[in-house]
Amino acid sequence: MIGINGSPEEDFDGTNTIKGGYQADRAERSGLPMSTTGSDLRVNGEDTAQPRETVSFLQENLFTFPSILLGGLPITVLDRQSAAFLMISAARKRRPDKRPYYFTSANGEVIARVHTDARIASLFQEADQIFADGQPLVFASRWLCRIKLPERVATTDLFHDVARLAEFVGITFYLLGATEAESNKAVAAIRVRYPNLRVIGHCHGYLAGDALEAKLDEINALAPDILWLGLGVPREQIFVRDFAARLTNVGVVKTSGGLFDHLAGKTLRAPLWAQRAGFEWLWRVLMEPRRLFWRYMTTNPQALYLIWRYSK
C-alpha cells in the first residue's frame, strides 16, 4: 500500500472552524438549503435547470452548508445531488492557498476510531467537508440533532452523481488506489458507463519510495479536477496530510474507501432494502466474515454510545 510515514472536540458550539476557515460558521449559517426531485435541482427554493448555472452559483457560495455534530464529528447537512454539485464547484473554484480541497466521509466505524485514536481524529478535523456515509447516521440525526440529514451520501453512490455532472461540464478524474487489476477493471467499467467522462489517469495504491514520488509528480502534472483516493481509513487521510501540499494542480481530493472494488465488480452492494434499513454493514460482514466480523463487533457498540453521547 502507499508508503505513509488528541481526542476529538467534545464542546461543539454550532460552528465549524476546520483548517483555513472554509467550514467556519457552517452550522450557524443555513446557506444553501438544497433538495432534489427527479432531475430538478432547487437552490434556495428556486429551480435551477442548468447544471452549469448551479455550479457557477456554488462557486461563489462554497462551504455555506449547515453542519451538525454526530458522534463528535461535524457532518455536512446536504443530500447526494447537492454533494455532487458541491464537489464539481469546488473542483472548478480551487483554493487560494493552492492545496486541493479535502472531502472525506464518516460512518459508525470512523466515529469509533476517531474517539480511540487522537491521530485519526486530527486527520478528520482537517477535512473541508465530512459527508455522512452511513445510513445509521441519518437515523441518529432525526432523534439527536437540531437538523436532520436529508439522506445518506455514500461514496459508492456519490461517485456516479459526480460522474454524470462531470461528463456535462468537462471535469476530469484521476483514480488512485486498489490493486492494479481492480484499478484497471474499475476504469474500464467507468469508460463504458460514462463514455464522455475524462478519466485522465489511474494507478494502483501500492506505491512507495521513488515510485510514489514519481506518481505524485505525474498526478500534479496531469492536474485532475478531482482525485478519487481509495486507500482505506486512515491511509487515505494520512495521504492527504502528507502529500496534499504537493498537489497544487488538483482541485478536490475525495477519499473513497473501497469504491474501486465496487466499480470493478469485485464487491457487491447490499440489497437496497438493507441499505435503507441501515444494515449494509451486516451485508459486508456476511460477504467477508473473516476480515470484518471482529471489526464491526467491536466498533458498532462504541459507535452507538458515542453517537448518543456526542451528537447535537
Automatic annotation (TrEMBL):
Higher taxonomy: Bacteria, Pseudomonadati, Pseudomonadota, Alphaproteobacteria, Hyphomicrobiales
Region annotation (Disordered) ranges: 1-45
Protein name per Swiss-Prot or TrEMBL: Exopolysaccharide biosynthesis WecB/TagA/CpsF family protein
Top-level taxon: Bacteria
Species of origin: Rhizobium herbae
NCBIfam families recorded: wecG_tagA_cpsF
Keywords: Glycosyltransferase, Transferase
InterPro entries: WecG_TagA_CpsF
